[in-house]
Structure formats: C-alpha cells, structure tokens
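To whoever picks this up:

The nightly regression suite flagged Large ribosomal subunit protein eL13 as changed. Nothing in the input moved, so I suspect the structure step. Input below, exactly as stored in the fixture:
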Amino acid sequence: MNPPTPIIKRPNYSFEYPHERKSTREGRGFSLGELKAVNLTPEKARKLGLRVDKRRKSVHQENIDALKKYLDELNKEKNTQSKA
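Regenerated output under the current build:
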C-alpha cells in the first residue's frame, strides 16, 4: 500500500489566465497541523513512510481525510494479519 501524497493549493498570480491556472499541486509533505489532526507525531509519520513538511503552516481538509483513510487501511491490514 502506497502512502498518500499531500495536496496543496497553488498561489493565484495576477498575470495568469484563469483557464491556465491549476488549483492544486502535489506538496512536499504533510504539515504539522495535518499530522496533529490525526494524532500523529512527525517521527511516527516518517516511520509509516509519510513525507513531512515542517515549514508549511496550512492545514487542508483533503489531506486530513487522506491520512485518516490511510491509517484506517493500515489498521485493517494489521488486524487481519494478527487474526490469521
């Protein structure tokens, strides 16, 4: 199972045309606020294979949802392996 990729919003520049603007891009890593929202420390996140960007301050709900889904899948895998 591959870890999720962080999504961040691109800045809006006045010289860009609206039809050429892309609203999001792949981020460098998950922010500390996003990790805190799912009760992860940066060290634990790195052990799970997640990228961490400690410089970024923004918190995006899409990233929190992706992290929750990833952690749920990890817990399901762990539970099925322990039962077998």
